[in-house]
Amino acid sequence: MESGGHHGNSSHYCKHGLFDNRNREMKTDPVKHLPPEAKLLELIHQYAHDCIVVLDRDFNFVRVNQAYADVCGRDLSEFEGRNHFELYPSPFIEICRNVLETGIPYRARTIPFVFPDHPERGETYWDISLAPIRDDEGGNGFLLFTLKDVTEHHRAIAALGRNNLVLRTINACNALEAETEEDLIRDFCATVVEQGGYLSASIDFPEGEIPGPVPDAGKTLVPLQSIRLPLLHSGQVLTIVGDAKGIFQAEENRLLEQLARDISHRLSRARERIEHRNRLMESEEKYRLILEHASDAVLIANQHAGFVYANHRAEQMLGYSAEELLAMDIPAITPAEEVDHSISLFELCQKEGHVGGEVMLMRKDGSTLPVEINAVRLPDGNYFGACRDITRRRQDEKAMRCQSHVLSHIDRGVCYMDEKGIILFTNAAFDAMFGYPPGELAGKPALVLNDLDEVENEQFVSGVFSALQETDSWNGEVINRKKDGTRFHTRAQVQRIRMGEETIHVTIQEDITEMKHFERELLERKRKLQELHNMQLATHTASAIAHELNQPLFAIATYCEAALRMLESGKLEDKKLFHVLDSCAVQAQRAGSSIREMLNFLNDQTPPVENLDIHQEILSAITLVKSNNHLEFKTSVDPEERLPPVQVNRIRIQKVLVNLLNNSVEAMESSGTKSPSVFLQIRKREDMAQVSVIDNGPGLNEEEIRRIFEPFYTSRARGIGVGLSISRLLIEAQGGQLWADAGMGAAFHFTVPLARENQLS
Fold first, then answer.
1. SS3 call for 327
2. How confident is the model at residue 12 (pLDDT cuts 50, 70, 90)?
3. What does the alpha-carbon distance between residue 228 and residue 216 come to, in Å, rounded to a whole number?
4. CA angle, corner 691, sides to 689 and 696, nearest 5?
5. Topology (CATH) of 293-396
6. Could you give the CA distance from residue 405 to residue 306 in angstroms, rounded to a whole number?
7. 136 Cβ partners below 8 Å, 6+ apart?
8. Where does 155-275 sit in CATH, by number?
9. Is the pLDDT of residue 405 over 50?
10. Are 385 and 374 in contact (CB under 8 A)?
């Protein structure tokens, strides 16, 4: 405000104020006697929410508004004839003097102050402004002193900072790893102190108590600035001593309780790991005895392919003593022409952690033998290999191939029956399918294969033979029963063949149990995907509603509080208006609370994750999308060779894949794309798997790229624009990212984490 403005109004302001500076007499109606140009200033002064005080050069009160009197807890008349700094001593007097002497206004934010006559309020915080007011002689004769209470805002900011420290502490504690429980406890306590800014933290059993949960310890402040939280899995207690800035707040308590739960869970897992290690050590001797008496040859090699262990069966199989084998390596017991193959299998085991296959070994006398080997990488870095002599098996397989030369090209089950349904012959595939040894089914009635009761079997046989009478063939699905009673589905083809006067029925059956299971699983996935879509849609809708309603609700509450202050000033007596405004404020605050509770409920989802083959999930999604769309389009999948499994929630990843594929299909269909096709690529990117979905449709421009993931944004005639935003949320919730590229044809890419064991390797 310009100094000339102060000068123009100062005489009226001082002469018609609450206190007359010369006779100190109270005025009964300060506004009534004001000239028109000063009435507006007087009304602002009288009804302002901020504290406004006018002091003379000696800092005596000249003018005090009602807000200042309320803050000080005094009546207006109590300030008459009093000196500000006698009433409230403070070094701030020097700043006031400087403003009067220099005429330069002063402003300061968040100044701490303790009311000497109201110590129960504790430390309060104020935004302060000082401005000189010119008197009739043109000098700085008065001081305009305004104050705004920012205590609650300051405390809220401080509490938010403390809560952020606790969140960082929780994240840091969850990242800790240690070999022993003692080391883990020590690291937990050090992290709480260093990251959370607390004075101390300790984990121990309560003194004088039997180890067990501490009842309600997380809700008790003992003493003023410490808190005790139970670790429910062990009976120990986490004790945290805070700093001198204040007691623990409610939200901070809740976060610290979460920290205690996380620490309890981590300690429990550490104990289980230690117990498991001890059990392994105790059982090591048992495993050694088992290996020594195993029917398979067992060889353990180090990372250089040198043997460090050989059991008794290995000595017998190869003709070497254990001492001789321990001085040898894999190439030494392998024929020269097979060394490269054996080394490649060993290198594959080093890379993948396990391997299986058939190799040739060479005995001490120079003879060779085929073996089936299964090898795994051990935790200590060595490689365990179990070798089984398959010489006899190869001989049997050769004989079997000769005996079944006629049916060697048929991989389906084949069965011959006479006209009465008696089984005459079954091939090996048919025997294996029904779980019978070769030749056992010959002479048995075919009804032993069907999982039907007597009436159902009679109806089934009647239907089959009726069809054979008309067309000499029958096709359909059958529910069968294996020898062990297991039920399974097959697709059967029955052909009637006349051989002179005899009739033979040839049945070819294919096991479709897996396909039936897949169909049921596909239907279940459709249902779960729809449920997930509905939940995510509800969450986005609620978020949009909350965003639109919270601000007006807050404004309603603010206006209601302002109206209440006017009523509390005593100038209005209408109790009905007071009741209506009070109810309005309560309902506005309740609406905001209800919205927050709804969002918390909708977002409280923690779906389980599992290790999945992302290639198979893509194929399943393609099948689902093709079954639900009329557009005929081509698909091609390019997976990286030997891609490890990913660690995701199956339903969520299916939702994302189906949504991206549906978007491509809709874009190509609406644009009339010729020869529509979708190309899917899978690549490993460090510890993530990246999936790209690329179509040959119209593509995306830069504006669409910028806004395509915004909720409710859509360029399509149908749809509400939440699919891609939901998909991004689903991917990000699993630790990945989803983005799109502009150009000819739409290209969407997302990443998901590989299974943990593959990240470490």
1. coil
2. very low
3. 9
4. 165
5. Beta-Lactamase (3.30.450)
6. 44
7. 10, 11
8. 3.30.450
9. yes
10. yes
